[in-house]
Amino acid sequence: MRTLLTLAASAIVLIASPVAAQDVVITNATIGTGDGSEPIEGATVIIRGGKVVAVGQELRPDPSLPVLDGTGTWVTPGLVAAVTNLGLVDVRAVSESNDAAASSSRFNAALDVTPAINPASQHMLVSRGEGVTRAVVMSDPSGAIFGGQGAIIDTGADPDPITRSKAFQYVTLAEGGARIAGGSRTASHVELRNALREASDFAAGRWSGDGNLLTRADAEALVPIVSGRQKLLIHVDRASDIRAVLALSKEFGALDIVLVGATEGWTVAAELAQSGIPVIAESLQDLPERFEQLAATQSNIGRMQAAGVTVALNADTIRNIHHLTQHAGNLVALTRVPRATGLSWGEALATITSRPAEAMGMGGKIGVLAPGAMGDLVVWDGDPLEVSSTPIRVYIEGVEQPLDNHQTRLRERYRDLDESDLPKAYDW
């Protein structure tokens, strides 16, 4: 039996092409399943053919399977970052390497992030090294309130990152959307409703293009939205904007809506819970940055969760995606703050694993360690919601991934600070 901690350095260095899924058994670990329950000590997880087969205590795996002793380690599902520009940006300030927005495009809803995602981006490698195995990737609305069609991706070290292309449409009705539409929320709401009606006409064969505001490509791209076959992610923060979206969901009954942001969501939590609309929420926003966030509080997620809302943590508001675990851990710490509302450990882990997966229609497939789920898991050297813990092994669909990236190479390069040596720039 091999020990995980002693073999961490032997992880795969490079995967240039797709690799067959591995069968692996990890025993004696503390396992967080990602479904909201508390961690299980001294447990075992079994992966076969890229899928989770079993999780729990006192399991008797097939003796022919390779076994890794997880004593002292924690095992969780791979983290799911939602929503984010991961894979679309290398250097945000360099336009040639930034595909996060298309402000001058003649198209908006028809934009598709899939061909622009770069699996070799250092941001992908860094995120993978911090335990992120899947991401919900969107394009920022800029030339119109629609950002276009986003994708669900994996961060694996292979040339095909796409889990589900055209997985959702992204639109903003927040302050930014009001500016884009013409300077007022009145304009953004008219623009959205007009687009949905034109798409409905297109689906029914009543669209000729004459007098329509949408291009043919945009109208065609919105057909899956009006029919409910594609998720519609709507960014709102103010309570009145959230209520406006709830009204929209009744007006267009087939819409499959997910709210993004929802800084003031806790003030309308009962209405959100009744609607059944999931939320990918701002994390720990305790001071308003904009007028639409005047009711901001760190207890936002905890209060919505307590009201029965399905809540995931919004990675887009975290400038470094690898801080996901820190923000989730802070939600646990809030339970010890007087008059604040936080989350249990299991609930906090779920906000960065199973809850975003559920919101995106992939519940039970990613973000959870349960029979039949994809074999995405992370082995940590300690409690993953503690800032001192780090991944020592990462698997995506049963394939162990390399954890090196530009940051780790810089760390190793400058670990030796012997000032008698020539500067590192002279090393060849």
How many helices?
Answer: 12
Strand content: 15-25%
Distance between the termini: 40 Å
Oligomerization status of the protein chains: single chain
Shape, per Cα inertia axes: globular
Mean pLDDT: 91
Computed CA radius of gyration, to the nearest angstrom: 22 Å
Tally of DSSP β-strands: 17
Quick one: biggest sheet?
Answer: 9 strands, mixed
What is the ordering of alpha helices and beta strands? EHEEEEEEHEEEHHHEHEHEHEHHHEEEH
Structural class: alpha/beta
Residues in helix, %: 25-40%
Instruction: Show unreliable segments.
Output: 5-17
Question: Any overview of this molecule?
Answer:
With 428 residues, the protein is an alpha/beta fold. The chain is built from twelve helices and 17 strands. The chain has helices spanning 4-7, 122-129, 175-181, 185-203, 216-226, 239-251, 269-275, 300-307, 324-333, 345-350, 354-359, 406-413, and strands at 2-3, 24-31, 40-48, 51-56, 67-69, 74-77, 79-84, 132-137, 146-154, 162-172, 231-236, 256-261, 279-281, 311-313, 377-380, 391-396, 399-400. Strand 11 (231-236), helix 6 and strand 12 (256-261) form a beta-alpha-beta unit. It starts with a strand and ends in a 15-residue tail after the last helix.
